[in-house]
Amino acid sequence: MVLKKRNFKILIDILQINIFHIIQRSLMKQILLILLFLYTAQAELLKEFDVNGLVKSEKNYIKRILRSEKYYKDGKKHGVFKSYFPSGEIFSETSYKEGQLDGLSNTYFKTGRLKYKAYYILGEKEGTFKKYNKVGVVLLEENFKMGKRS
Fold first, then answer.
1. From CA 58, how far away is CA 53, in angstroms rounded?
2. Are 99 and 118 contained in the same domain?
3. pLDDT at 43 (0 to 100)
4. What confidence score (pLDDT) does residue 39 get?
5. Do 54 and 121 fall into the same domain?
6. Could you tell me which of 1, 34, 54, 82 has the fewest CB atoms within 10 Å of its CB?
7. CA 28 remoteness from chain centre
8. Are residues 28 and 52 in the same domain?
9. Considering the entire predicted model, what is its pTM?
10. What is the CATH number of the domain that holds 92?
11. Which residues of the chain fall below pLDDT 70?
12. What is the domain extent for residue 108?
């Protein structure tokens, strides 16, 4: 009989520990959901539509700072897409025409210096692609013709 009481006590202890862990995990999940809600509540996506109901532009704000702007024509990417660092400085500028990469594409360091520079025609790299370091020295330079290295 003593052995049974001891086993029962061990079982109670194990159950209490498991219940504590379940409550603790549940509480952590609730805290994470609240934090996620608070973060997303600070994000805004503003869309402008054309007369046909298709998206004409999108501007994404987080904590009232512009993070990206995109433009469309007839529902396809068209124009210069821009994205920004959380501090507001430009991160990238990419040109689109009728849904395809077309034109200049630049990516920047937080300092504002150029990181990558490429040119596209109908979605394919064309001309000189350059990669820079943080002080502006060219690290890589490649030439492309219709998307292939030349």
1. 13
2. yes
3. 76
4. 62
5. yes
6. 1
7. 25
8. no
9. 0.69
10. 3.90.930.1
11. 1-25, 32-33, 35-41
12. 45-149
